[in-house]
Amino acid sequence: MTPQLDVAVVGAGVAGLTTAHELRRAGLTVRVYEEQPHVGGRMHSFRHDGWTVDTGAEQISPHGYRATWELLDRLGVPRGDVPRIGAGVATWRAGRAHPGVADRRAVLTGAGLSPPARADLARMLAWAARRRAGFDGDRPERTPLGTATVAEFAARYHRDVHDYLLQPLCGAFFGWDTARSTAAPLVSLLLAVGPAAGWRTCRDGMDLLARRLAGGLDVVTGRAVHRVATGRDGARLHLGDETVTARAAVLAVPAPVAARLHAAPAPEEAAYLAACAFTPVLKVSCLLDRPLAPACGRPAYILLTPRAEDRVLSCVIADHVKHPGRAPAGKGLLTLMADPRTVPGLLRAPHTEVVGRLTAAARRYVPDLPSAGRQYFVHAFTHGLPEASARALRLRPAFMARGPRPVEYAGDWVMLRPSSEGAVRSGALAASRVLARLGRRIPRDEESIRETA
């Protein structure tokens, strides 16, 4: 049977859309299938009565996101549409917010750390700086930290470094448990992105990149793929009452979903897919009738709430501080992120229960929240963020060394780099592997963002 498509991509998140974008530029016929009614995946945003609500990712950095910026430039996105946030990150300790987290001045200002911990933070930063060349964000399995967990790495230093810095960062930004997740990807990312003061957001929602990519592609939303099998001519996608044939398929979905969809992955693929566990993520968006935010000595758009202080929340995000366009004039928008250990018990709870639990905890930081709350939205991701386990690090080299095959994979889990940069790089890599097998070249201006195995 003659294949209907050159390539079928499953998943319209940033990884899948990047894959399709590059393959289409190479002259192939590509179609993207997305189970949800919208594109963006974990970088989706929606609009409601003048509010712009990011359901997933919150920011990008001017450093460490080279492939993301090059893709934005190619799509014609002005830098003005990705402005600086202009506020920092604070952490809660002993009844108040301490600004300056992820800031170079933290060793002087404290940022919630005790004086002995500041000295150990300086020692940790000096250690990382001396070994910076050994931290490659695209190859976390090769760093000097090996498979040490975040907790094991932090044990070298004062307890505060873990309790009031590394654990809050892991919990808020990745949904990680420091006793399970390895330190190498975290340290690699922190070294790459630099201080929080330079971080940026998208003016009209974090789905900007996904919307721009999808605008030039054949994307079918609301269409679930149930199974993908390989054959003599490529791949077959089973979509319930329809079968689609393609010369190649790319599964741009979380690793557990890819393992379920792919009928017969090769042994090294199956092993890595099984090792790439995902942590669930749960958050509540609070639409407010006035711009409330946690009180802080300096402007902060994120307040980290360490597990040592709070077992319900991991952070409070003031989205209208992140960018004033997230809320109508005179209104506010807060995001309440659940602590990773709280999420499993609430993931399938009624939304009223989730809202009640998280807003009750948030009153400690924003006392007027109950009187200002206008409407609440719950966002739950069963497969929230890839957790870089020791087993995944050990198995990744064999997975990355495999030859091109009819079914490829894309997603930040491929890179063990939970970010849009990881998604873009994995998409470029998947496209290059497909083109190598089908005998087509990537256009020259795309080679710069292609990740090489």
From TrEMBL:
GO terms for molecular function: oxidoreductase activity. Residues 14-435 form the Amine oxidase domain. InterPro entries: Amino_oxidase, FAD/NAD-bd_sf, Zeta_carotene_desat/Oxidored. Gene3D superfamilies: FAD/NAD(P)-binding domain. It comes from the Bacteria. PANTHER family: PROTOPORPHYRINOGEN OXIDASE (PTHR42923). This is Amine oxidase domain-containing protein. The lineage of its organism: Bacteria, Bacillati, Actinomycetota, Actinomycetes, Kitasatosporales.
